[in-house]
Amino acid sequence: MKREDFLKIGAMSGLSTVLTANQAFGRNLTDNTIDKLVDINGNFIQQPLPYAENFLEPYMDSETLHLHYTYHHGGATKAANVDLKKINQAMQENNLETVDFWTKKLSYHLSSHILHSIFWTNLINKQTSPGGMLLKKIEKDFGSYEKLKVYLAQTAKNVDGNGWGILGYQPYTDKLTILQCENHEKITQWGVIPILVIDVWEHSYYLKYKNKRADFVDALFNIINWDNAADRFNDALKLTR
What we know:
The protein is mostly helical. The chain has 2 domains: 3-121, Fe,Mn superoxide dismutase (SOD) domain (Helix Hairpins), CATH 1.10.287.990; 132-240, Iron/manganese superoxide dismutase, C-terminal domain (minor pseudopilin epsh fold), CATH 3.55.40.20. It has 9 helices and 3 strands. Strands 2-1-3 form a 3-stranded antiparallel β-sheet. The radius of gyration is 18 Å and the shape is globular. The relative contact order is 0.14.
């Protein structure tokens, strides 16, 4: 599949109306197309948040959200553009000594940009639960939604250092899978399409939860947007079949 086609399908999930109970919010998300990661020139861009910075309170405070989105996600987006520019420059100058360095940097920063873009849409200001095809798949692959919650929460809480807990669809096995990702790109599986991500870098929770990562992960389950995860799962099926 061409890169342009993959990005187009990724953007479709941002165009979905993920909150049928809140049409205004749903239209806002549609207008933002937060999954569109590049502009027409191929430069990485950070889309506006699909909600106000206090939207996720009390579970995620507005100050943390502001710093997280503006400086951590925003910084990764800007750095990915620098990485890509340096790679192109090295190739044009036939200076292959630096390509390896910048390629590693791009893997780190672009992975951060991708996962953060998914993360913001995976959150809402109310408690939801999976349904439809996603729930059936969860029950088939994990036994029950409650078992999945325990598995995903435990995985996120126990990431070594900084990283993510990820629920994704693995097309090679036609199964949902749980990943424990260190940093933004380490110990992942080839081919997995993320549908729900939990950010457990310290900048995600330290202002409000201090060093209590487990409390933060438990709190997130009050604001996980399972409707968005279901949309992403449906898009993953379309992408791979």
